[in-house]
Amino acid sequence: MIANFLKKLVGDKNLKDQKEYNPFVKATNEVYPQIQSLSDEGLRDKTKSFIAKIEEEKAPLEAALKKLKESAEDFKVSVQDKIEIFEKIEKLEKEIDQQIEISLKEILPDAFSVVKETASRWSANGKLTVKATDFDRELSAQKDGITIEGDEAIWHNEWTAAGTPVQWNMTHYDVQLMGAAVLHKGNIAEMQTGEGKTLVATLPVYLNALAKKGTHVVTVNDYLAKRDSEWMGPLYQFHGLSVDCIDKHRPNSAERRAAYMADITFGTNNEFGFDYLRDNMAGSVEDLVQRKHHFAIVDEVDSVLIDDARTPLIISGPTPKGDEHEFHVLKPRIERVVQAQKEYIQQCLVEAKKKLTVINESSNDKAKDKKDLEEGGIALLRAFRGLPKNRPLIKYLSEPGIKVNLQKTENFYMQEQGKHMKKIDAELFFTIDEKNNSIQLTDKGIDLVSGNEERDFFIMPDIGAEIAKLEKDNSNKEELVEKKDTLIREYSIKSERIHSINQLLKAYTLFEKEVEYVVMDGKVKIVDESTGRILDGRRYSDGLHQAIEAKEDVTVEAATQTYATVTLQNYFRMYHKLSGMTGTAETEAKEFWDIYELDVVVVPTNKPVVRKDEDDWVFKTAREKYNAVTDEVEKLVSEGRPVLVGTTTVEISELVSRLLQMKKVKHQVLNAKYHQKEAEIVANAGLAGAVTIATNMAGRGTDIKLGDGVKQSGGLAIIGTERHDSRRVDRQLRGRAGRQGDPGSSRFFVSLEDDLMRKFGSERIAKLMDRMGLKEGEVISAGLVSKSIGNAQKKVEENNFGVRKRLLEYDDVMNSQRKAIYKKRKNALFGDRLDIDVDNMYYDLCDNTVFKNENSNYQDFEMDLIRVLGIQSPVTAKEFATVAKLELVEMVYERTRAKYERKCERIAEKGMPQIKHVYETMSEKYKNIVFPLSDGKREMRLIVNLEEAYTSEGKNITKAFEKNVILSKIDEEWKEHLREMDDLRSAVNNASYEQKDPLVIYKLESYELFRNMLGRLNEEVVELLMKLDIPEQQEVESTNKEDKQSNYGGSKSNNNSQTQIPSGREGFDEAIRNSAPQQEKKQPVFAAPKVNRNEIVKISNGRETKEMKYKKATSLLESGTWRIIK
């Protein structure tokens, strides 16, 4: 009622959106008859005219940009003039993007009509015949679907996509034209399942690809990326646009670079993000693969930008002492604590059951009843705070009045910011906050963990108070420093120990095998909670993965450190224009707008949805619910309807599978263990009587098409075994039925023992169940209950949004630093703005040196200048005391720059005779020339392009020198800085104990860390630039070796006493290799011997062995992970 009133008051957003985008549909339909009148050749020629128009309209700007870039490359241009030139370049690049958008808007109706007519002719005529071009001939040799007959190229409507023959039979509807306009304008198009989102994307993809700036189509998995690139590719290729898929090629390869240079590039979200990180670890310009982030369309945008965005992309590599950990040492202590907690919780539960009988059977003694109710509530709350996932507890909470009593008791003790909750927690060994996924040891738990050790063995010292205490002692300076070092070392050891304990506790109490993770091939693998897919290569951060490995008794892999990281939010926000499409985005519209500034536009369906969405069926216990699910499946199969059973976890999907096997109902299972069979299982899911059990979002991106006779039977039936935490995941499951006006139905089966109902179910539902006095097996089905469940889901969504926003707030701090350092790195790699960065480094270091010695004496100041900058003081001792500091900075800077420029000229003069000789006599033989540089103690070998050195009269030696030094030091310092930031992220969590906001502390401390890192970077770079020189007795070599050293390597130790300058690359190559997607391991096929149903067999999965009757072993053998060994 309120919603309808607000719509009348402020207007219906959906109607407003349709009003905004319908003019695009109308304009396209007006132009379409003209496009229809064109021949096949004329249709194709339109693309050339579109490209020519865009090029012509931005030509003046491109010409001005080219001229500015040429000016910036001139060695004679001063640094100050270069700064002004690059400011103009950045402004022009933005103006070019704006001009492109204007041009694209003008040609949109014609471009959409061209794509629509191409699809229509393929569908109606089966082929398109045009004059053969070189591009046609090249493609016909690589793929099917194109035949060359003389001078003609025939593009057939049948070809192969993802190894499967496909036939084009699709034409764009008007609603799809609206969706395409939404995508082109950089928003999210919400379109129901089966409405042809993949086809919709062809319109804006084609339109934006005409600008030749790169259009990216982002998918949730590599199967869809490869399939869509081959399925939709011919539509673009017919018009002369190049198409490729990054997931088909190795990272950092020439083939992947070519894929990014294509007009249209398909790929998975992870690979796009990882390529960005790899590019910022690249050793030379030739190793880069990506170009400007111009336009991207994200398929299943909610899955990519919300679900996957919870976990940042991390490229990690080896860390010193990474194989040292305490998990195995601490594991027995944690097992002891967890066991003690389980025993105590059991006692609490027994006491609660005994005391709370008063809820349903009150005595005549009101005072005793009140006392029992209070004590029973306390015991129940302790059980809940101690082990909320305890199954007997979950079952007990479903009994009448029990959950209401728990909520009342909890509300009482949570008053005044929970200060009374300490009375409850005092008797526990640890407390669990399941909503926030956190765990906390109590004093009692610390005592038990400590065992025979002193109690402070696991207690953090108050380092601030301890240091203040030390400074009050009258110790001499050396003793004070030694005591401080001891205190800090002890703090570090205890911090790591406590962190390990917390992670082990989480592993044992919050992370369940077959739910959050599975163990396969002796490794712990994460299962995506939304899609049910195994996230190969992903590891829980912060030592949690190692803790789970210790718990499961598999090899605990060495700890790694971060070498490069970015969140998907910050990666996709780099695009000039971003859009997305999905069937379920409306419920997350606020998050899309707050984080990405993407508006969610609901596109109407082509045909009305006739699927019947039934009210939820709510049961008291999970056992009753699953019995009802199997009964419903049997009933639907008998009616000849296909059934899709949606589950939230792998464990539940296998439980339902076992129950259906007992009833002899044939079915297929699709979860993390069988995701290789996804396409095959989904293809058969719409046949009459087919039963498919799948995690809620498995098979996403593929349609379930109904078989013969299914529409007459009522269509696909959706059964949800549990409400997901997020409403859009439930909507996604419902949307599997009722595509394109097909009939269908959906219903969710819920119990009070489900995670959502336990954690966020309201008091209203619990009271309603109590009032109705439901008996075992009875069910509630009412709109009021479904609405209450929806409200519970909203609470979870708000909580999850908070978690993701918090993650983004932390990464925003990193992002500003990442942008700054990656910009410096890119400038060094390309060399175009290198002299500006070098000049800034000199000035910053001169400024820092002067102000650092503001209160020092003249001798200290002069020594600093000699040590760091290698110059004599520009002022006398008397002038040092009187001259203004800013003026002194300028004087120091001028003298430093003058000395450096003289040295650069000297290097060019020394090197030029050899350069001239080699170029004029051996240039056809050698491409590069090697120069040694040394300060008498350290040596560096530079590889310089011979031709550039000759034409620049040796000036590019300096540029190669600066590039090599800066890249080396940036990578060395950035790697160390990321390690410090990882440590800081772990440490700031302790700030909450001091009633401080960890994020505020993180921002302040990270700023200081970054400032210090830049200070070290400037000092180290300038010191090397000032001191390294060409030795008098140098040996210049000629080589064809590429300049790959400019990233981290290139420093080389000789046979003398000189040492190699640290390269900064240690571990980077290994980290880049580890970031590549893992090849899917094929499961071996075993031939099982023929046995009788009741014969005892021995089976094994490689880790454990079981003996049982063959009929019981069947389900395990069918999973593919077990086999008969005897």
In words, what does this structure look like?
With 1126 residues, the chain is α/β, with parallel strands linked by helices. It is 54% helix and 13% strand. It is built from 41 helices and 32 strands. Strands 8-9-7-10-17-6-18 form a seven-stranded parallel beta sheet, sandwiched between helices. Strands 19, 20, 21, 22, 23, 24 and 25 form a seven-stranded parallel beta sheet that branches. Helix 29 links the parallel strand 24 and strand 25 (744-751). Helix 2 packs across helix 4 (79-125). The protein is globular and about 100 Å long. The two termini are 67 Å apart.
Highlighted features:
seven-stranded parallel β-sheet, 32 strands, single chain, 1126 residues, alpha/beta, 13% strand
Write a compact overview of the structure shown:
The protein is of the alpha/beta class and 1126 residues long.
